[in-house]
Amino acid sequence: MGIVNSNKQVNLSQISCDGTVTVTLALTAAPDISSNPTDIVLVLDRSGSMAGMPLDNLKLGAKTFIDIIDEATDSSQDGNIGSGSRIGIVSFADDAQVNEPLITSVADLKAAVDSLTAGGSTNHAAAFSEAASLFEPPSGNAKVIVMFTDGKTTAGLPPAPVAAAARASGIIIYCIGLIGSDGIDVSVLNDWATDPDASHVAVTPDAADLEQLFADLAANISKPGATDIVIDELLSQDFVVENISAPSKGSVSSTGTRSLRWTIDELGVTGNEGASLSFTARHTGLTGGLKAVNQSVTYSDAEGNSVTFPSPSVDVSCGSSVTPEPCPVPVDLELDGCQDAVVVDLGDADLESLGRIVQLDVTIRNVCPNRRVALAVILTELDDSGNEYQRGMKAFTIPAHQFPTCRDVLVKCIKFVLPEDLNVSTGAPGSMCGTRNLRARFIAHNIDTDYRCCDVLITV
After folding, report:
1. Of 335, 359, 361, 388, whose CB has the highest number of CB atoms within 10 Å?
2. Which residues lie closer than 8 Å to 459 by C-beta, 6 or more apart?
3. What pLDDT does residue 421 have?
4. Which helix (H) or strand (E) holds 160?
5. Alpha helices in 169-303 (DSSP H)
6. What is the DSSP string of 104-133?
7. Cα distances (Å, whole numbers) of residue 140 to 69, 84, 104
8. Which residues of 31-68 are buried (b: 16+ CB within 10 A; e: fewer)?
């Protein structure tokens, strides 16, 4: 059966800048059907839209599927499903019915397929429910449902909860879709099927392709686990790999600051088997927001299993942002489509910039909740001898934040005007092209504290 499940998850949904998150990769594989007896229920759509050639091709594909499983279980097409495996047939339209329970007779299974006729609407919930009931009473066999449909649900209850309950009970679900006259939503098939979608969902617009889709699926179900597995993980630009733990199976090596390689000789060859790998990813980016942890994960093995992993994200918080000096208020004006020019009185303008403008940003680290901060900035200019000349000082009250923990606060857009006739850096006052050598100092203190006076009375 090859790889039957793959997953990737992170242990936190939110971290701070420079924070870490634990990433876990997991795989599950099962052996081939001859050493891993499997009960398979073919669930076949016989609604009205399947009339004619689509139903003919469906029957051909289903019978090809039965032949491949017949041969895979005992190395020959002898008319009998061997090695303890069984196949059942369920068909559906307005409702669902069992055409054959779980049996081993290839002739009886094919006869049930050939007896199908098209007509009615599409009730997927009843189909999943009827198929799941064939696995009762439970046996030690693996359980598989192969759902084929050519359209959207038009009757019965919502099928997604029924499919989810089947998966939760240990049933592996594959979906084959034919884009028929009713259309088909591939995302719905992905939702019904077992992960990963790439190896559990197949869709075609051409009924002539159905035989090949059923044949490919039968070959996938009968694969002998997975061998020579290679997984290459590459983190996004915002993260680096740290603290790689030993995997539960196989070995792992670092291939770069953002990448690693996990190799497994064999998995699920003699029985259902899982493997996992965990490592720490540290945020090193300059910005916050919702960040994808990995850039890519590639998988390969000797059997050609198709495996995809989820791409989890984490919300990175890089602190609060304060802008103490507001930007000038803009004045709106309008130029009509046929006007070549417009004259507008924009009102008074304050004189702000007599020379160059220096804008400073600063991050105040570890500001705790409900604490205002007094911030001062002193700007000086250096001449060629290293002497300092005052160019400005500003003081601000930074408002308290209400976050539950201490955090960094970014103070933005602190502006100073540097008249060119005060230029002492190059000995060429008034030149707009002269280099200005400046020095900035920041002073920050808490204004609010938890200090409280208390009266002490001493009696002697």
Report:
1. 388
2. none
3. 79
4. helix 159-168
5. 186-192, 197-200, 210-221
6. -BHHHHHHHHHT----S---HHHHHHHHHH
7. 18, 10, 16
8. bbbbebbbbbbbbbbbbbbbeeebbebbbbbbbbbbbb
Q: Which residue in 322, 326, 244 sits closest to 22, CA to CA? A: 244
Tokens representing 397 are 């009250």
**CB distance 17 to 121 below 8 Å:** no
pLDDT of the residue at 121: 94
Residue 429: what pLDDT? Answer: 52
Contact residues for 307 (Cβ-Cβ < 8 A; gap 6+): 3, 6, 27, 196, 198, 199, 299
Contact 254, 241 (CB under 8 A): yes
pLDDT at 433: 67
Sign of CA dihedral 222, 225, 229, 232: positive
pLDDT along the chain (460 residues), means of 10: 80 91 90 81 94 92 92 87 93 96 96 96 96 91 92 92 94 89 84 82 88 85 84 95 93 95 89 87 89 93 84 86 68 79 76 74 90 93 88 91 86 88 68 79 86 57
Q: What's the full length of the chain, in residues? A: 460
Which of 286, 285, 442, 287 has the alpha carbon at shortest distance from 364?
442
Amino acid present at 323: T
Which residues partner with 411 through β-bridges?
A: 322, 362
C-alpha angle with apex 25: 9 to 7, nearest 5 degrees?
60
Structural domains of the chain, ranges and CATH numbers in brackets: 10-30+225-294 (2.60.40), 38-221 (3.40.50.410), 322-326+354-446 (2.60.40)
Residue carrying the six token digits 């059923």? 214
* Nearest alpha-carbon partner for 58 in 46, 67, 69: 46
Closest CA to 8 of 200, 278, 258: 278
Position of tokens 């051909």?
60
Task: Answer positive or negative: Cα dihedral of 182, 188, 193, 197.
Answer: positive
Residue pair 312/21 in contact (Cβ under 8 Å)? The answer is no
Six-digit token pair at 114? 């050939």
